[in-house]
């Protein structure tokens, strides 16, 4: 699979998110400025994106609150994610927020930000009323808190040099996020990256959303479908089970790891939320929803040198 096909997965994710937002699953006034209105998607896909977005944000907010925002967020393979703007609206911004992705993706994101005031203006607002300086060039964006940078995540030296350039302080509590990203690189490459993160950041949380149970029949069919669209999951061996997902961290020195499939995450939603989203669209194929949700998971892992309570992060 070429890098172009990997980059195209961002368009897929962004348009699915856009459609789910249009249907009222969650509020995001920003994604519409990065991706055109999307074609209809199946209700189980929309519900899946809701639980994914909600689940990641739930763990992330726990981390931000534990660190009282004295922390950093690094989003790997961020694509057209709008989390920075949404956290800003909620007063939950960290000290530094860095996104890394391929140049082909960051250049388009930078272009849209530069040309849409709805995206650009919030980046210029600072706490003291003086406008922030922003530089957008060479497919990268730099502002005091928010950086979008190009990097190939398979190249740890590249990742390290970009994070240094963004001013990342390895001693500050840091959370890494990836959503369907590691699966596109070989297990050796993702393992090198996770080892480097664990070795370099003493107080760190990693939140990974990705496929799981991929060795069963449903998983095999999923892989065949993707392959027919020239999309090879090189890292699928790490997605065989919840244990393989956790072990990819534990085997390279992380202190603790936990994982939950999306069916379980769904049942952890507040009952009022479940009631609301189940009324948005009629879903007659509950079995398909269940199968789909059992083939994705959120895995989170930590190292907690500063002892700030990272082991207690999880779904209550
Ligand atoms: C499925 S998309 C997800 C985008 C975003 N995280 C989301 O959930 O909406 C995967 C993203 O990871 C990026 N990606 C995958 N492998 C990468 C690599 N080796 N280096 C940089 N970016 C990568 C792709 O370009 C793409 O934007």
From TrEMBL:
The EC code for this enzyme is 2.1.1.233
Q: Does the keyword Nucleotide-binding apply?
A: no
Per its UniProt record, what InterPro entries does this chain match? LCMT1, Ppm1/Ppm2/Tcmp, SAM-dependent_MTases_sf
List UniProt keywords, sorted A-Z. Methyltransferase, S-adenosyl-L-methionine, Transferase
| Enzyme class label | transferase
Keyword Methyltransferase assigned: yes
Reactions catalysed, semicolon-separated, are:
[phosphatase 2A protein]-C-terminal L-leucine + S-adenosyl-L-methionine = [phosphatase 2A protein]-C-terminal L-leucine methyl ester + S-adenosyl-L-homocysteine
Give start-end of the signal peptide.
none
The family database entries (PANTHER family) matched by this protein are listed as: LEUCINE CARBOXYL METHYLTRANSFERASE (PTHR13600), LEUCINE CARBOXYL METHYLTRANSFERASE 1 (PTHR13600:SF33)
Q: To which protein family does this belong?
A: Belongs to the methyltransferase superfamily. LCMT family.
The job of this chain, per UniProt, is described as:
Methylates the carboxyl group of the C-terminal leucine residue of protein phosphatase 2A catalytic subunits to form alpha-leucine ester residues.
Q: What is this protein called?
A: Leucine carboxyl methyltransferase 1
UniProt organism field: Saccoglossus kowalevskii
Which gene is this protein's source?
LOC100376437
């Amino acid at each position: 699979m070429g890098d172009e096909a990997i980059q195209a997965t961002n368009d897929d994710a962004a348009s699915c998110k856009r459609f789910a937002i249009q249907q009222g699953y969650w509020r995001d006034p920003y994604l519409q400025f990065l991706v055109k209105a999307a074609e209809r998607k199946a209700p189980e896909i929309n519900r899946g994106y809701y639980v994914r977005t909600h689940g990641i944000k739930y763990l992330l907010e726990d981390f931000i609150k534990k660190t009282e925002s004295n922390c950093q967020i690094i989003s790997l393979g961020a694509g057209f994610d709008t989390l920075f703007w949404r956290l800003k609206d909620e007063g939950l911004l960290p000290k530094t927020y860095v996104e890394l992705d391929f140049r082909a993706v960051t250049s388009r994101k930078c272009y849209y930000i530069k040309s849409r005031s709805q995206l650009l203006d919030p980046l210029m607002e600072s706490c003291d009323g003086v406008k922030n300086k922003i530089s957008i060039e060479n497919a990268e964006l730099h502002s005091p808190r928010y950086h979008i940078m190009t990097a190939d995540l398979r190249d740890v030296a590249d990742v390290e040099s970009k994070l240094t350039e963004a001013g990342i302080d390895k001693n500050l509590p840091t959370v890494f996020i990836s959503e369907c990203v590691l699966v596109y690189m070989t297990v050796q490459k993702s393992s090198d990256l996770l080892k480097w993160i664990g070795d370099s950041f003493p107080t760190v949380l990693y939140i990974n959303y990705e496929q799981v149970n991929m060795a069963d029949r449903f998983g095999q069919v999923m892989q065949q479908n993707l392959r027919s669209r020239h999309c090879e999951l090189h890292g699928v061996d790490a997605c065989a089970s919840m244990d393989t997902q956790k072990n990819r961290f534990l085997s390279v020195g992380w202190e603790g790891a936990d994982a939950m499939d999306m069916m379980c995450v769904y049942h952890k939603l507040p009952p009022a939320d479940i009631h609301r989203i189940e009324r948005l669209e009629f879903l007659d194929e509950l079995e398909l929803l269940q199968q789909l949700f059992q083939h994705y998971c959120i895995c989170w892992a930590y190292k907690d040198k500063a002892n700030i309570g990272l082991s207690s992060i999880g779904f209550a």
